[in-house]
Structure of MOR1B protein:
Amino acid sequence: VGKSSVLTCPHKPDVSQVIWKINPSVGGPCTMGYRADQKTNTTNCSDSVNWKSKPDEDPALEIRHVELVHEGNYTCEVAAKEGNFHETYHLTVLASPTLTLYRDDHGNLLCKAVAGKPAAQISWVPESNSTSREEGHNNGTVTVLSKFTACSTNMTDATCKVSHPAGNQSQSIAC
């Protein structure tokens, strides 16, 4: 989420037509087309989806500021003198969770990985008998809450470690 992504398409000489067919997981389809005799045409595409450069020079598609709504299938079809070519992608968007670590009213330590996609994995240092629960959101993200209940008098602090494909994070708190 938030980065740019470029999807390449077969680049051939003497291209007569390029079509990107975009079917997002959420929302309606979008089409971007180029014909040598009519130039470009775009139907139902957001402003963040566009040609990387001139489609006759490079038919790649660029998605600026990727969001969860961009997830889905992207197919490029190229017609050239050499024949017809296509490339299909399934774009999966990762959302890095926001980490918060705090103490509840009973003195338990709570680690929360908010709105990650996919769900984050939470572990504790030192290892403990922690409990976790997940809450799914309508946009496909998941919040994971883990409770650490093993603080003892000989411990100075505990560390919550969040593992996620978009990047790992950790925070420590005094016991």
Remarks:
- The longest strand covers residues 15-24.
- The domain at 98-174 is CATH 2.60.40.10 (Immunoglobulin-like).
- The chain has two domains: 5-91, 98-174.
